[in-house]
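tool_call: predict_structure(chain=1)
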Amino acid sequence: MGQKLVIVESPAKAKTIGKYLGKTYTVTASMGHVRDLPKSKLGVDIENNYEPKYITIRGKGELLDKLRKEAKKSEKIYLATDPDREGEAISWHLANVLKIDNSDNCRIEFNEITKNAIKNAIKSPRPLDMDLIDAQQARRVLDRLVGYEISPILWRKIKWGLSAGRVQSVALKMICDKEEEIKKFVSEEYWTIECELVPKNKKTKAVNVQLTHHKNKKISIKDEMQCKGIMEELEQNDYVVDNIRKTKKKKNQPNPFITSTLQQEAYKKLNFSTKKTMSLAQQLYEGIDVKGHGTIGLITYMRTDSIRISKEAEKSAEDYIVSIYGKEYLRESKNNKVKANKNIQDAHEAIRPTYIELNPDEIKDSLKRDQYKLYKLIWQRFLASQMAICLLNTVSIDIKNGEYLLKASGSTIEFDGFTRVYNLIEESDTKKVPNLEVSEILEKNKIESKQHFTQPPARFSEATLVKNLEENGIGRPSTYAPIISTILDRKYVEREGKALTPTELGIIVNDIMSNFFKQIVDMEFTAEMEKKLDLIEEGKVEWKKVVDEFFTPLKVVIDKAEKEIAKITIEDKVTDVKCDKCGKYMVIKHGRFGDFLACPGYPECKNTKPILKELDVECPKCGGKVLIRKSKKGRTFYGCSNYPECDFVSWFEPTNKKCPNCGSYMTKRYNKSKGNYYQCSSDKCNYKELTNEV
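tool_result:
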């Protein structure tokens, strides 16, 4: 038998697949795309029915020469790029370069990188799917037309280097609209009343109740005077148990992850950005060297919108659950509930571990810290999706006081089910209430009122933005992370803690896009375009027709905008830091590596400085200021402002607080189970102290 060539995108993937195929196969990597539209010009022939002009990506010439040499030596070539539109397009470009006919059975596809999946794929090659390729070409051309036709307008009217993206502009508008909503929000005062009650003739635990109704209507307490009047009325009557309802509540198991839910949960539970989550998931999918197993793919393909799983995966999970937890923990119904969503493509399985028996804790030593965290999250979520429901015993108590009604509720776990592996129950959901009887009279132990103010809507975090993009049909699983990365990199949006807030630049760009390019930022229009791309994939619509229907009216708007948009100047933000060379107050500039201070006297004075934030903490070594710094890898650390004279440095935030045991300075730490706490900085002292500080 002659030599066979398998081409994938990455060396990691090549290494994993090569292990399964043996010596008659050469597995090599294309290192991603090999052809694309040129960066220096539009690259789309608008006059010639939007024909794209692809060129070899700079720096890929030598690689392509090697691929051609390998191809000549091989009797059969298999293109094994990722199983999605983009992967199909990469294979098509490779076929073009290597002169493989599109009708040849050269394309192999797999959802997981396991021995069986690879062997089965090799047995079932297929021709390239031109409908998939055309859908990807349409997306690429549409995005290029928007980016290269509108972006230059922003360069001329605002400043060089800005970009207008077809989908990123919708995401930016969502963030700006939310900010406008927050600005318009008017906070309103309201009060609540809570009581701690105890049975009159029993030594029973107190029950905490909240006032909810008056004369069978939900109560609304507007101010302190009204609140005091109600509290005086409550003093005049007994607290009597009016009704007790005991029920059983089922808490259903979660579905296995899809791309959007993985990004949301990794953000909430692990504080991973969407970009980081997808990068780690790619590593887990392509293959990790696991002790005793060699290089193996640990999860299935991570760009998916389907919660479907294979029968083989179900059976493996079933066997594992029965052997580890027992039959009672096995899920009764095996059909994952799917919400009616027309946007779901259902091309791949849900994200799950390829080998359920590879417990994260047992292979922890083979994984990097963040790889382990994400793999554990995926593994637990999938296992939980195949386990039994959780049963709760809930109790609701109504307590009457004259015409007022107060309520208490609580629950206890009867059967933990899937929460044994993946806990979705809040601590407040399992609050116990004492055993009481109807008509029982309770005594007031204490009563208190609390003043509150209605809160404005929360800003988007990365997790909630992804959720909203998905719900509105904006983008697809492969695009969520790049959308967020783009608007952050362009300085249209910045992070404030976990919140995404628009910058002045972002608001200006959004105003221009909203006023002059309404179609681009319209959510319904963008979602409809995603559906048209799906129709192209299904072979129901010709891709160039879709592009023409989009671009013809857009061109008219572009020409009008070029004439009507006025020049906008954004002044650099002036700081109170003086340039130590010429004495002028330095300004904040944006660079490819982040913000920095620059002298406004440029080009006469070219002085620049990094922006360093100070802590209100003295250096434990010399009494100088402690600065927040960044390592080369972007990790935050703390160092003295007197460096290099003082070499104080710490990975953990130092405080002015002293350890009561040894007198060393304390550092701020965070643990998911403990929350925020202080810990002594000395390696010889283990003193820790909880704190309520954020």
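agent: Confidence is low (pLDDT under 50) at residues 337-342. Proceeding to next step.
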